[in-house]
Amino acid sequence: MQDTRPLSPSERWFWLIDNISPSNCSGRVRIHGRVTLRQLERAADALLDEYPLLRSGVRDMHGSNPEIAPVPDPEIPVFRLPARASGAWLHALNSEMATPFEVGEGLARIIDVVSREDTSGEYHDIILTISHVIADGRSLMAVLRKLVEYAAAEPDAEPVAKRAPVPPADDLIPQGARGFWRYAYLTLTDQVSGRLRKPRRLGEMSVVPLEERRTRVVHRVLDGARLRALVEDCKKSEVSVHGALAGAVALAIGDTVNPGAPGVAGIGSPVDFRDELDPAPDADEIGIYAPVLAGFVKFGPAESLWKAARSVKQQLDRGVKQRRHLATMSGMRYGTPKTMESARKTIEMVDRRATWNVSVTNLGRVEFPVAVGSWQISDLTFGASNSCVSGLTVAVVTAHDEMALGFCYVDGVLSAGEAEAFADRVLARLEDRPESWA
């Protein structure tokens, strides 16, 4: 594959959305110890050496046939911010969620929020942001890990191994999962099934115009003891942790929009499909490898966490078995708008008619070192901006014996107080675990 290529259908969708509202994903990690600006700049250069996509931008060709193309002077800018108040990193993360990229000039940037500088307690919150046009959450975490490792390396370390350009995920989907009629049938049945269930959405999307939507983040953490208890209870009840998370979110939607009454909530769940592609990309490769499957979960007085979790798991298992996630991704080529004008109309229609507006993006347990050189590493966090369809993304990552949950909400669809209250309802539902799933 050449360094210059047209955007794949999935990349083009995110690019079209990004032209209306920022579409970013950010990862944050805390480094305990002294970190110099030069170390981070050297690490950024190493990432540029390794990943062709990070040396590229999107050339829009006047809105027609946009393409990935090398940037003449590629750079991952590094900005250092002194922490002037507690929680300064969260203010920086909120800014990253809301700040679009000049995609023609590059698709990644780094923020270093430094606290207690020049003291024995110095620490740095490193925030890596990559445009969603080229990267999903797992890709982001892989690059963030490499950023830390490259920053800790000696200046005369071995040169970075350069990666060859790889095809986008759309081109690697097995032939048996492709085809217009398969995509059309699955899309139609999903829409009909969703509408028959009459799901309730969280907040009113139309109150905030697409171009004015900006994402803010409410941060919560499950510590080691609570996380281990949750994992053990999920095993006993034969459900996945993701099922419990999505089930708790569905029940919290009911608690918010229709308390004390029965109903249905729609939840989107990205499904990582790297291992199903041919050939399968490397685990550390950058790309979009997680199409979304929607599930519909009952809430109300008669529903429990385990019933909701089992429903999520069964629907996801069935969707994966039917290869719906593959068909969804491959089918984007049939419905991708050709112009920005048609894209806006399509996005507005999807945004208005979608049967769900909350997703749970759970990256699961991410292998991230607890120490690199003399540095101690902690507080891995994940965030994703919302645009059309989604009013709230619950971005979840587990590492360092804790689970971080980022409730990434559209400011105005929910207020800050409503987002805080919703996050607390989700955690309360996760804690309310009956001894059996019935």
TrEMBL record:
<dbReference type="InterPro" id="IPR052058">
    <property type="entry name" value="Alcohol_O-acetyltransferase"/>
</dbReference>
<keyword id="KW-0012">Acyltransferase</keyword>
<comment type="similarity">
    <text>Belongs to the acyltransferase PapA5 family.</text>
</comment>
<dbReference type="InterPro" id="IPR031641">
    <property type="entry name" value="PapA_C"/>
</dbReference>
<keyword id="KW-0443">Lipid metabolism</keyword>
<dbReference type="InterPro" id="IPR023213">
    <property type="entry name" value="CAT-like_dom_sf"/>
</dbReference>
<keyword id="KW-0444">Lipid biosynthesis</keyword>
<dbReference type="Pfam" id="PF16911">
    <property type="entry name" value="PapA_C"/>
</dbReference>
<protein>
    <recommendedName>
        <fullName>Phthiocerol/phthiodiolone dimycocerosyl transferase</fullName>
        <ecNumber>2.3.1.282</ecNumber>
    </recommendedName>
</protein>
<keyword id="KW-0808">Transferase</keyword>
<feature type="domain" description="Phthiocerol/phthiodiolone dimycocerosyl transferase C-terminal">
    <location>
        <begin position="214"/>
        <end position="383"/>
    </location>
</feature>
